[in-house]
Amino acid sequence: MGEEIAISLENVSKCFKRYARPIDRLKEILLPGKAYAQEFWALRDLSFDVMKGETMGIIGRNGAGKSTLLQVICGTLTPTSGKVQVNGRVAALLELGAGFNPEFTGRENVYMNGAIMGLSKQEVDSRFDRIAAFADIGDFIDQPVKTYSSGMYVRLAFSSAIHVNPDILIVDEALSVGDLFFQAKCMARMRQMMDAGVTVLFVSHDTSAVKTLCRKAVLLNHGELIGYGLADTIVEQYFTMKVEGEQFVIKPVLPDISSNFQPLENDKFLLDRKSTFSQNEVFRKKASFQRIQNGKANFANIQILDVEEKEISNLDYEQKIILRMAIEIHEDIEELAYGYHIRDKNGSDIVYSDSIIEDRNLKSVKQGEKYIIDWHFKISLCQGIYNIACVLSVPLILEIGKVDFCDFVPLAVQFTVSPRKGSRLYGSVHWENCVDVQKYETSML
């Protein structure tokens, strides 16, 4: 196998035997020459390569053979025929809880998983605090995993997988379980690993995620490879498949956001909005992930509110909301800019705006001052999960050619949007239109 190839499959097939009755297994052993089993070919003659550092999507309807393929690559299943070569350490997040002993505690499973991956006890010791912090399951780390919820399983499994420094990461739909913040945190960490050159195999029914994250993809149908190439092309092929008895439903992620904002001076909110700055421990915990700060100013809190200023996270189509930023100043700054990114669940930017665009930078702010910035949105998005990243910075210094980030919070706040009633939206951004229709008549000439 070439040095630049991470995974190579050559004519790989996998056959399972299905018996009508349990006793037929014994009969087949005791009476050789007579077959009592029906063969089921989960994979047939698959051949493709995955290059080092590549992110490969694997798509196909239920029963296409995706999970079997991943298990063959991981080595938990032996192919019936063909050749599989894997170059590098593999960390896999397959079916929920796979690889965990339900009788062991979370801590014991972390050490067991590390040993399986070839890490010494000392190496796991040095990483355990980071694993526990990322999983964030509290005292349950010392409880048997059989007492865990599905979300807790995934938290610990994903955290264990990413902290063994894998060369190849395999993820099979498991990240659809868990709360919004954890999903966003996992996606951010996956992107970080991809940028660092980790090879990723990503199985998902979310074709928008495959198109966003993956350069290439493979399409399986009844265990056969029917498509291999650029992700956009393979996804289009997936949608044009004619599968008897099954209707494919396209669920695009489509936002429509118009924004303006109302910065409120310090003395207007100190009394009636004091809680914005005091009740912020949840925000601080979430914001710590991949946060960048320089100490000059910071976000004390970031919230999504309805028009009655009640905090919300589940939004309806075209609901009017407020994105509230609470800002604390720690040293005198001549000019301070602030802004936000709205990103889909795959981490792709959908909308961006900032105070430079709106010409509303804060001028001559002083140490000890506090500000509340309210951005007012009319937000129209398709059903989905979204994340808002917020930035606080000294504007671009042209002579230096860079922005001085005071505070950058990649995972500031997460929200979901319910489906739009009526007709479906397509595209990336939907805005209001005025449509003029005239019937053409020859007399109009």
TrEMBL record:
One of its GO terms (cellular component) is membrane. InterPro entries: AAA+_ATPase, ABC_transporter-like_ATP-bd, ABC_transpr_TagH-like, Bact_Polysacc_Export_ATP-bd, P-loop_NTPase, Wzt_C. PROSITE patterns: ABC_TRANSPORTER_2. It comes from the Bacteria. Keywords: ATP-binding, Nucleotide-binding, Transport. SUPFAM superfamilies: P-loop containing nucleoside triphosphate hydrolases. Residues 7-247 form the ABC transporter domain. The keyword Membrane does not apply. GO terms for molecular function: ABC-type transporter activity; ATP binding; ATP hydrolysis activity. CDD domains: ABC_KpsT_Wzt (cd03220), Wzt_C-like (cd10147). Belongs to the ABC transporter superfamily. This is ABC transporter ATP-binding protein. The lineage of its organism: Bacteria, Bacillati, Cyanobacteriota, Cyanophyceae, Nostocales.
